[in-house]
Amino acid sequence: MEFAHKLLLNLFPSRCVFCQQTVKARIIDDPTVNKNIEICADCYKSLPHNDHCCIRCALPLAEEINDRVLCGRCIKKLPVFDYSYSLFRYQDDIVRLVHQLKFSEKISYARSIGEMLLTKFELDLLPEQGRPDCLLPVALHESRLRQRGFNQSVEIARVIAKKLSMPIDYDTVIRQRSTVSQTGLNAQQRRKNIKGAFSLAKDIKYRHVLIIDDVVTTGSTVNELARVLKKNNVKRVGVLSIARAPVKG
Predict the structure, then answer these.
(1) How far apart are CA 229 and CA 77, in angstroms?
(2) Are both 21 and 83 inside the same structural domain?
(3) Range of the structural domain that residue 6 is part of
(4) What pLDDT shows up at residue 230?
(5) N or C: which end of the chain has fewer CB within 10 A?
(6) Element spanning 162, H or E
(7) 3-class SS at 235?
(8) Could you tell me if 81 and 131 lie in one domain?
(9) Nearest C-alpha neighbor of 86 from the set 202, 239, 237
């Protein structure tokens, strides 16, 4: 299988989704990871990595803040979820990458995103937080799922779950009502819009759940989901996303 994979890569080399050049180097110099990331090393380095962020909610912070600190929002009121990791800041090429996945049906991009998150999972999340019992992609309402044809969070979670032999919980949490798009809403409006949107279709058997999302903007959606999980005896809830939006203004 490994030989066949290498042969296919030699015959049909991947091209970077950003610069369209042949992907020749791994984003991290480790032969065991990043085999399916269609982003070249140069473009990966230039992406807006979320290296300086809140240790609880992953909100991007000013680069001169080097210590591991809480953001002002978390100092005022901690989120319901226990930890959060976001690989990038939601800006520039990352916005275009996510939009291509969600709205232009570039489902293959989910593989590259999943592989990048897998690296974040193995290097940071797993040593610091321990191994979750399952992955839980943020659910879409059935009307939105029919319209889009797929759930991008599910596609991303599948990559991670396959590599780590972890279960994905697809059907315990349902989106019981259709909400208007969160795009364009402020933080207060987002919280009101998403409140009561999730419910459990059956008892959840896991105690440490990792929510998988594509983009965390204000955190309202994952916070509401975490609230439902903890109300139903989940002890620990984390969030892993490809990007976290900076505070506007």
Answers:
(1) 19
(2) no
(3) 1-46
(4) 96
(5) C
(6) helix 152-164
(7) coil
(8) yes
(9) 239
